[in-house]
Amino acid sequence: MKSxxxxxxxxxxxxxxxxxxxxxxxxxxxxxxVQLQEAALVQQNLTALASERMWEIVADHANxxxxxxYVQDSAYPAETDPGGLTGYSRTTTVREVDPADYITxxxxxGIKRFKIMVTGIGSRTLVIxxxxxxxxxxxx
Length: 140
Fold this sequence. Notes:
This protein is an alpha+beta fold and about 140 residues long. It has helices spanning about 10-60, 65-70, and strands at about 80, 90-95, 110-120, 125-135.
């Protein structure tokens, strides 16, 4: 019969020390990786929600039954949990602006500046701004 050799106390302690030194950096890397993936997902959701609203405004502007006059604050109310995404909010502001600087408010200028702000988990925020113009001879 063969005898089995048991581990000595020194070998067991050395193994525990090596594992104790190796495991924390591995856990740190795993945690950092999860945080990066979460941040990427939040950024993706922010971008999707802002883009969705931007294309909604562009489509409304191009729609012959809606057009330029439809694009206003009241058509795009503030939302909590838009698209069923808990922890997100989306607001849209629309202002008619001076074509000389695109900032100064000016009624009947024919240029509307819209700003879409989406806030998500961890107070991450994405803002998109663009313009629509009243096209001569059309409703939009």
